[in-house]
Amino acid sequence: MRFDHEQPIYLQIKKEICRRIARGDLVPGDKMLSLRDMALELQVNPNTVQRAYHELEAEGLLFTRRGQGTFVVEDEEKIIRLRERLARKSAQAFLAEADSLGLKKDDVLQLLGEVIQEEGF
Q1: Which pLDDT value is given to residue 115?
Q2: Which of 3, 28, 43, 111 is most open to solvent, judged by the fewest CB atoms within 10 Å of its CB?
Q3: pLDDT < 70 stretches in the chain
Q4: What's the confidence (pLDDT) of residue 13?
Q5: DSSP letters along 25-62, please?
Q6: Of 49, 55, 60, nearest in space to 82 by CA
Q7: Rounded Cα–Cα distance for residues 95 and 105 (Å)
C-alpha cells in the first residue's frame, strides 16, 4: 500500500480496509491480521493500525473477541450500506469534477453511457 503524505496514515488504512470489505475481499466474520502483523505488512507503527482498527470498531465494521482477535462485522446490511456510501462518495466526487470542467447534466449522462458501453460494465 502506498501512502499519501497529505492525509494521516491511519485514515488511509481505514479507507483501504473499508474498500476491501465493500469489494468482498474481506467477508463477514473474516479474522483480521493482528495489529503487529498488519503493521509489519504495511510497514507502519502498530499504534497506527490500532487507531484504524479502533475507528472501524466504533463504526461497527470490525469487532474484537477477547483473546481471539479482530473480525469483520457479520451484519450483511452494514456491508451493503458501506458499499453504497463509498459508491455515493465516488459519484459525488465525479460530479464535482465534472461540474468544475463545465459539464452539464446531459453531458455527464452521455459520457457515463459511453464509458459504460466501452468498459462493458
Answers
A1: 94
A2: 43
A3: none
A4: 98
A5: SS-TTPBPPPHHHHHHHHTS-HHHHHHHHHHHHHTTSE
A6: 60
A7: 9
Q: 99 — phi, psi (to 5°)? A: -65, -40
Look up cell 502498530; give the residue: 46
Task: Report the Cα–Cα distance between both ends of the chain, in Å, rounded.
Answer: 27
How far is Cα 27 from Cα 31, in angstroms, rounded to an integer? 9
Buried-state track 2-37, b at ≥16 Cβ within 10 A, e below 16: eeeeeeebbebbbeebbeebbeeebeeeeebeebee
Helix axes 46-58, 35-42, angle to 10 degrees: 120
Cα 112 from Cα 74, distance rounded (Å):
34
Q: How far is CA 114 from the centre of its chain?
A: 27
How is residue 64 written as a grid cell? 474484537
Q: Report the predicted TM-score, pTM, of the whole model to 2 decimal places.
A: 0.85
Q: Quick one: pLDDT at residue 103?
A: 95
